[in-house]
Amino acid sequence: MSQLREELKKYKINAKSYENKGKATIIKTSDGTFVYKKDKIKKEILTYLKSRNFDYLPEIVSSPDENFEIYKYISDLNIPKEQKILDLIHLIALLHSKTTHYTEINMGDIEQLYEDLDNNLKYLYDYYTDLITIAESKVYMSPSENLLARNISKIYETISETKERLEHWHALVKEKKKIRKVIIHGNLSLDHFLRKETSYLISWRKAKIDSPVIDLYRLYNHHALDFDFEPIFHEYEKHYPLMSDEKELLNILISLPDIIPINGIEYEKCKQISKLIDKIYKTDYLLKEKSKT
Fold this sequence. Notes:
This protein is of the alpha+beta class.
């Protein structure tokens, strides 16, 4: 706490009270409320965003040279989550649009990504094969093992179809000479989006230059079971259409089955497997709907 007081003193912030909230500390003063975080946006990312007139960040009062960040607290409006995620996806489309640039394609990077995804699919196949082999060797399966056994064919089907998409993406991207890059937030979720008179994105520590697909994948991974993503992705593409290889890469990433835990309380394992299966079926339906457009 003494270190925090010293860091606040640099910016003439005299705290009346402190409240820990996750990785942040909320600081109330007579001059308003501030947020203190050790996680911070990289200086070069902040400079680039400002140069592109992307101003949807909280007002930062600390220097970008510090190893911490202090910004003015923003109270979030209580709006329906369905509206909030559409506001978020619109803002992400704007972020990607404002920071788009093209670079010469590096086939070494492409081949590395292809190999990583291919190895991931092989690992998933072996992982679930080991699980189901152990389950089927027992006289009596546990509830979680029984649930897995009843759905293992769908897991194998998903892995196989994702492998086909990977080969299609590989063929598409090998024909390109340039690839599109943007600044991505890197950890998109509703927890990192605030809506007041305008929209704000917070928690930029994972921001970097990468494919726009990564932001969409991370958002889907956080909220796949919370929303119907067909209109969400449609809203994004109204403002920032994806290229054919980007669409296929997104389809691959969101199709990858999650790893379920093999240890723990039986009730929790059943919940995790149920979520895995629900996500697989929901993604399958989403991809079928996307293919119609």
